[in-house]
Predict the structure.
Amino acid sequence: MAESKLDDARAFVTLRRAAPQREPVDERLRHWKEFYQPLPETALREQGARCMDCGVPFCHGDTGCPVHNVIPEWNELVQIGNWHEAVDSLHATNNFPEFTGRLCPAPCESACVLGIIDQPVAIRNIEQAIADRGFEEGWIAARPPTFESGHRVAVIGSGPAGLAAAQQLRRMGHAVDVFEKSDRIGGLLRYGIPEFKLEKRVLDRRIEQLRAEGVRFHTNANVGESVKVDELRRIYGAICVAIGAGVPRDLKAPGRILLGIDTAMNFLEQQNRRDAGDTIDPREEINARGRNVVIIGGGDTGSDCAGTCLRQGAASVRQFELLPEPPHDRSPSTPWPMWPMQLRSSHAHEEGTEREWCVSTTAFSGTAARVERLHAVRVAPDETGRMTPVAGSEWVIETDLVLLAMGFTGPAREGLLSQLKLKLTDRSTVRVDGTHSTSVPGVFAAGDASRGASLIVWAIREGRDVAARIDSYLRELPARLE
Amino acid sequence: MKSLAEPVSQGLYDPSFEHDACGMGFIAHLRGERSHAVVTNALRLLANLDHRSAVGSDAGSSDGSGILLQLPHAFLRSTMAKRGIGLPSAGNYGIGMFFLPRDEESRNNVEREVEAIARANGCRALAWRRVPVNEHQIGMSAERSRPCIRQLFIVPQGVDLDVHEASRFERTLYVIRRLIEKSVSSTYIASLSSRTIVYKGLVRPTHLAQFYTDLADPLVESGLAVVHSRFSTNTFPSWSRAHPYRYLCHNGEINTLRGNLRSMSIHEEQMSSPRLPDIGELFPLIDEGQSDSASLDNALELLVQSGRSLPHAMMMLIPEAWEADTTMSPKRRAFFEFHASMMDAWDGPAAVAFTDGRQVGAVLDRNGLRPGRYVVTDDDFVILASEAGAFPVAPENVRAKGRLRPGGILLVNTTQGRIVEGEELKSDLDSLHPYQRWITEQRIPLVERDPDQTREPDEDSLVQIQKAFGYTSEELRMVLSPMYTTGEEPTGSMGNDTPLAALSERPQLLFSYFRQLFAQVTNPAIDPIREQLVMSLGMNLGPKGNLLDATPEHARQVRLEHPILTTSSFDALADTSLRPTVLPTLFDAGAGVSGLENAVNALCISAETAARSGSGLLILSDKGVGAASAPIPSLLAVAAVHNHLIRERIRSRVSIVVETGEARDVTHVALLIGFGASAVYPYLALDAVSDLARCGLGPAQMDAAQARSLYTKALNKGLLKVMSKMGISTLSSYCGAQTFEAIGLSRDLVQRHFTGTATRIDGPGLDIIATDTLRRHARAFHTVDSDGRLDVGGNYHYRADGESHHWDPRTISTLQHATRSGRYETFKEFSNAANEASRTGCTVRGLLEFVDRESIPLDEVEPTSEIVRRFVTGAMSFGSISREAHETIAIAMNQIGGRSNTGEGGEEAARFGTDRNSAIKQVASGRFGVTTEYLVSASELQIKIAQGAKPGEGGQLPGHKVDETIARTRFSTPGVSLISPPPHHDIYSIEDLAQLVYDLKNVNPAAAISVKLVAEAGVGTVAVGVAKAHADLITISGDSGGTGASPLSSIKHAGIPWEIGLAEAQQTLLLNGLRGRVRLQTDGQLKTGRDVVIAALLGAEEFGFATAPLIVEGCVMMRKCHLNTCPVGIATQDPVLREKFSGRPEHLVNFFFFVAEEVRELMSQLGFHSMNDMIGRADLLRQVAHGEDAKRRSVDLSALLHIAEPASVASREDRGRRKMREQEHGLEKALDHQLIALSEPALTRGERVNVDLPVTNVNRAVGTMLSGEIARRFGHAGLPDDSITVRLNGSAGQSFGAFAAKGVTLELHGEANDYVGKGLSGGRLVIRHPKGSKFLPNETVLIGNTALYGATCGEAFFCGVAGERFAVRNSGATAVVEGVGDHACEYMTGGTVVVLGRTGRNFAAGMSGGLAFVLDTSRDFEARCNKGLVELSAVAENSDAMLLKELLERHARLTGSARARHLLTRWDTAMHEFTRVIPTEYRRALRAAREQLEEAERRG
């Protein structure tokens, strides 16, 4: 690699975008591991060199990265090969770049200025590479606080928001207890994201760091049931509710009660448990092997289900989406630097998932209580833009496994929220003000629980923000030194 | 005496901003013979300098003129005898010329007091005489303020003084005058002397003798007379400010005045003189509130009265540039060096004529920035003036002619009957004392133990301390890294769009509240690179001795070559025998806000104690910042100690050195020095640099010692630039000169610690400064920081968690979406966001809101199509931006009836007259592509004095941006870098600007002439001067805009927001009754209808947009304009990137109509039918209340909203709040009307025309209007050669042959003044000495300074010597001349210059193109050539030799040059006596082009 080429202010003209290659489909379908071939260092440094160090980096402000990653700074550091400094720079804004580097849809890239005239810089890959390099080199070590504030905080939920909040709060010197109702730490990251997208060892090594910094984790601790809310209120100066928005949107259609129709989350969790070595009760088992699967919902969760089904050995996988097929390029209604309305195809589509647009499911039918057919109708937008059925377009498809991946309606109300008597919004999320305070003093909320289902990067941002707010809140209280 | 009519400080106007400049001269008899002819001739000389003076709103009242004479004893005796009063013999009485109140009672009181003071000093008031005046000879405002002028005759209490006593009597009169000045109010003494008398006042130079009827009396005789006509930047009638003063008159500007005054008052502490035993009673020796010239006069007078000779005193005050002059004799150097340890130079452009009534002389500043020409006649007269020919002398009567050279001095020695010039005078002076020995013996050496020593900074604590001082990671990356890797200041682009310090939510360093001042119009900025020989960073440290004495001990100081200390030089300094005292500048962080104030007070006391107990050096040190102690802002520490010691009158005992972790960029260091520090040790910055270099965080690995040394170099270079943009050449004069203004800083704080610094917007005080300091400190020591890294900053590049910017991702993208989709709703989204950004902290206008007023329906408001005609786009050169971007703007502006601006890069001729033509053609210092055709293709000609992003600086277009087309447009060579000089070399002073306005108006009488200024303290006063220089339009640019590349420190720290500058201009123009004559325009980040309406209410009639249109064109604020890598094809010439340009004219049209529509909506809300009604209605604005935020609450904008009352003497139209009448340009008197009439056959029928006419110095810009006419009819091609030949006899006025077009030949027998052939555009000039001249033509000055400035083509033959800066910025003309002054061929980019004689210094500085041949018989040319860009060689026997020979032949033929003929007769040997000068880069580019051509030919 010629150094001079990288140092050239015109590198963005001479160098092309490069992204990691996926393993060939038939190979990757045979295992559950991540399947991207990491870019060689040269290619990463070239991508860093393509960064134009914009006076106004759109990748990083309102239009770009929610955690305000100072992207031009670490792009430059990667370009010059100073990985250690890049690791530090990246962690200054993002607690878990190895998650976002793998999972983020990268609004930074759709806002990248280079995108006006060319393909954007491969920002997300650089981010992932920096983070992974940091772990490999051992640069990402525990950074326990230098003193104890004497305050205690309970973080409820161990998804990305809860983890980010916990790490920030701990580094500020507070004693942090994380309560997770499930048997393992990680929330959606643990059970919602397939192993082939995020190997759980990646999650574990980060949790290890938090543990080493002094964050205490409590699993199988369902606050509101196994853990009493009042007790929490008594012990902790502040409570952070970061329980996510896990209630899936259901489909009200005849035949929904038939066997073989399940939620995406149940399906994905089961596979993750299998990957983790758990045994699944055969009565509960949902498996796509040999089945003709229909996934209802055209989003990322649907795609995750599809990838999982294909790896399980499904006979066929179809994905239905209510909305029309978006344009293949950026729609004029969402000019740069906005998040573009455009067709996005995932690895799962490459692996053999068929997509259908403008499909509304009207009913399921089957025999022996198991689904065999899905009844659908074509829809089209009416003059108000609402998708309405097209007369005479009804059709039926054979299927023996239907997965519902239609998004989430909000956090679970029963238990914690009702016992804390938190006020909710119209959208059923926890109501918070600009400081992440809920209607109950000392109780804060962050992440999907208050924001509604969103991106991991937003969860991290909210976790960081809520930590700062809790910190200022605690400073006003007397410390309870032991 | 303050004139009664003079306005006091109000609103944004402050009388201290006044400047003046002018024409001056003297006539003297070589042997001192007295005659009335000397007086009448001097008055004639004065009348011929009338065009160098100015006239304000009232035509009869000039800015003043006057004459200084020897006491006309015969006249006085006879006059007094008629009244029955006998006068003693000459020399035995003195006369005071008093300006007294007209009210009789007060006058009587004053006179009684004056008499008492005379009595108390051993003198007797003999009589008062009313000086007869003819008040009909002066204008209304002059008459209103006219004092009662009376002469007081004073006699000593003994009679018949001998020579010794006569001097003592003169001194007594001085003492008496000083005592009167100190204790008697409402009187002014023009002169009080037994030798000289001054008649002066607010009288036009042409009317002085009619006003003072004494002057017409044949008995009024004198052997010498000094005259002056004044052009001030203000018109407030001031009789006292007319020149001459008691000893001198002055043309120029003292840039370091504030520092000089400070330093004089500091000198008073140690001052004593046996000749002035009671000197203490005379303090302060320089009155406050005078002009710079008057102060200089006071200083000169003091030095002379205490025993120094006139020339000695002048050389102390205005020394030549000795520091960098390697050819100067050691003895001479020692003289200057010794005096530098005692007194700082009074620095600035200056031509001074001085006299004590016995001797008369003149001196010129070190850089030769004012003209001074003289003749000696056969009948023994010496006439010196700002212009040659101002007093016509028959050629056969001329014995010799000459000019004042840079740093030159001359004296008329009447006893010997000859002129004594520089060298001889100076050698007398440098032998006065053994200066060399004194310096060697006394100088304190600085012994550095280990110059390369660097400490390994501890990384953890480094970050912590950096946090305490507010370092950001951005500063390391964008400021320190470039400095230590390149040794240069970092460059940025696209201006500044962050809040003022006082409006920012983030903690600010105290430095950020100050803005650099810069030179505009009244004095030139200097080019610190190309004219380095006049610059110096040297500093003397240690106590200062008695100014009125000279002893070896005066030299007991440490001399630093530059003020940045390294670890080793700092340690060495701390070990010197200056008895340094280290004063910690820390405060107890736990004590909170009040801790700072207490600590500052305690610091001042300790400093005082140290100074009183004999310490010669105070080291203010913030070393030791820790958890418990926070640093006092270093600037506060320095300024507070400096001012405290001045108040205590012990400042001269010590020098101040700062050891600080806070200072890291150029402006920081400049501020510390500007407020009194002699040297700065930036330890933390040096550690940071070592650390960066060691960790390789920057782009390159390098050794820490090398990094520190480059960093220091960058700071020094930056300092030179900061000084030079104010026109200051020596750092010692800059030190303490306070050339900064405070913006939004508490007035009390400024008055106490930054005494005398301009501050018009009140703002945060010490409490908030302390709060900010403690916030930084807490972030370093008291919070648990989760990442342990420095703050991101976001000051230069946008950062979401950093400083706020007007242009952020949201505003940029919504503006683009709106203008591309044509959706007004989206534009509203943009403008709401932009206005909100304004309100939440970015701008001054964000703090303003509209007063409620009855609204009118929207349809009653004038249409958008009218409003958009007031819109113009900013000056962005073709070259800095691409052709696509440039033309798109022009097309859009022509479509809407607004005006686009060429910028300073010229314009492709194919665009003239088409829809791509820019209506505004800019004339900037580089004069690129400024042809006559270019000028006549404009409807507005804009003289760019300064630009918002880097006022006071030049520019450079890097070679990689100069492609074929751009080179053609700019008359240069592809691939060769182009330099724009910092100043216009034809504007060193306000009267020069008037001349350029006149020149341009001559070329294109139909075009409006505009002058672009940048807002700073005093811009209103400059605007007044510009209005008086007859500009039609004045642009006040804000600091924030700027699309080109500039040093980051200039982007951030120079200039102020347009709101303040515009309001100041509006107020000051109104006060002067001149507002009605000019249009006002403003620009600087205007974006929305609200911005436009606020600008209109503050006084603007027109509105400039630059950044916003670029964003509409696709700019995304990359801030990469300087790199040629603009990815959207705007600020680049890269063909690949230009392809990416996506802007369209209709997007711009949408933008301007959207803005206009918003303007209409606001007009409807405010009840205005037309924009005209709205202009200047600042009463409709008020400051918004800021409830919570203590910082913003402290900001007070009332000065901005002050409504000035127009001057009452002005006409109704002049008093308008907007332009109501046209300027009187005086074009009707131009000689060219005759020339055009006589040339009619050539113009219409192509016949040859010959014209013969006489010419005098009042005929300015001869041939210019004719050439404009030719270009209009025939374009750049002009007429065939010699179509029109004009033969002239006499002394031509300035700008002879300016912009002369092809086909015009001007032949002059006589002489010419400055700016001959300015912008020569194809014409031919031939000038030779008059027939019958007796002096040696080859050795005698023939034409003035700055000939052929910006010439693009044509030829010139001068059979004589030219002044300084011959052929500066020539890009294509061919010239032959027989000798030149300093800086010849500076910045030349093309053309050929042949010099058949001696050259001055600094030949070819910044010359990047063209050829020069210099006859170097004595083989010493090389030492005077600046070889930065050029190489020297012999003339080879090829095309060069042929070219040279042919030029000599033509020169001989056209001018009859004897020297040329002689050289030709022995050509074979003569040829080898020439040296060829060619720029290296140019030679390479030529060779490359030739090879390319040959290659192409080979290929067929």
Observations:
- The longest strand of chain B covers residues 20-29.
- Chain B is about 35% helix and 20% strand.
- The interface with chain A takes residues 473, 477, 494, 695-697, 699, 784, 786-787, 789, 792, 796-801, 805, 807-810, 812-813, 816-817, 820, 1114, 1116-1120, 1123, 1125, 1127-1128, 1134, 1136-1137, 1140 of chain B (CB under 8 Å).
